[in-house]
Amino acid sequence: MAQLLDIPLELLVDIFNFVLKPHHLAVLCLVNKVFNQFATPFLYRHIYIFPWYKDSKSKVLSLFRTLAECSYLAAYVQTLEIRDFPKRLFSADHSYLSSLCVKSIRQCTNLRSCTWTKDGSLHSDLLRSLSNCQQLQELEINGNSGEYDPLILTQFQNLQKISLIMPSVHVLNVLPTWIKALGATLRSLRLICKASDHVTDELLESLSPDLADLEYLIMFGCRRVTHKGIGALVSANRNGLLAINMEALSPSFDMRVFRALCDRTQAFRRLRSITLTVPANVSVLDWTRDVYDLLSSARLETLQLYSIDMLGDTPVTHDFWQRIIASHGSRLKRISFHRIRADPATLHIICSQCPRLEQLFAVTERRDLEAAASSFSPARNLRTLHINFPLAAGEASMPPVTLMQTALSISSRCSPTLTCVGLNTQVWQVERVVCIDENGEKYTEPTLVPRENPEIPEQFLVGTM
């Protein structure tokens, strides 16, 4: 009988590629020398530290001590995502950890993506080390420059993706020079301001000539940015954006004027993804009509709508969803709407008329959960489903056991392609077990297990920055 160790060694690469949990990869490293040789690169390829990890701050110290002492392990690191960092340290301990971080980064010779978002944890020496990583293409950092010199940012070469979280005025002052220095390599710009006044239309207008090749634009919480600033960026774009996020921008943002500008320039002719916040100070009916017209030339695959407040009295209309699905349903793979309620009839239209739908994030009433569950079965390619149901004032939350049973009931009515299901704050991985009926016929039933993938969807990262 063939044993696992009898298979060709080159197949181990394909097998280990499906192992998601770092703990499981660590166990594989201990099997024997051959497994260690093949599993170790996978173990260190993507490194994540989130605030909710147990002993996350001590893990930071252990991680960077290992990478500093073992250069061959550091060379395996391609993605480094640090969203927590010990700050309350004595001076000597802080200096020691900082030196470990600097040395580790220098040895991460194959680092392609770095995320470092803990406020106050990034300093000039660490930033210089990152700027010397020749393979680095993606950089996401906290923009509070109290501990580092913003001018160091202009030393980064060949970046394709920049993400700045709550950038200070000093960082924004060097942003035009930095973007000009990057030339045509930059493809993605993400600014998360959380109600900052520093990002303005004037800043975006000054950046627009050097962002002509931009493909992805994400703006969040920039409350002084209107249709003028975004319009300048999309008008200067040579090839058309692939994705745009416009969330929590200025109340003065005029969707109708922006739509007319995009129509004239055909700015959205290549657009595949859009994320929008429904403004609180306009007619939702008029706004959705302008959004529909805005997307008339797009080749939409992802549509995400958010509301700052729960839209109860003025929901996004059933007619809007019908028109959107009629125009883009054949291509849509991901639909996400938060704080915007959808009735079972709307969910049925989405699931039955979007044959390529893989991800659905939706909000419905608790009383509609049973009816909504029947709406998901037509989505034959659905892989991820997350349903939020708001609780009325004084209404008790659903017990964890009941919540899991409800999620399992919903999963049983979905396509066998479903691999992840969530209700409110709970998320499970969907696995299928083989059963045999009384006639000896085999069939599968879904079962829910803890989620294995350490990567966290972006919509769940609120509060980790």
UniProtKB/TrEMBL annotation:
Entries under Pfam families matching the protein: F-box-like (PF12937)
Domain F-box: 5-49
Gene3D superfamilies: Ribonuclease Inhibitor
Lineage: Eukaryota, Fungi, Dikarya, Basidiomycota, Agaricomycotina
Protein name as it appears in the record: F-box domain-containing protein
Source domain of life: Eukaryota
Coiled-coil positions: none
InterPro entries: F-box_dom (IPR001810), LRR_dom_sf (IPR032675)
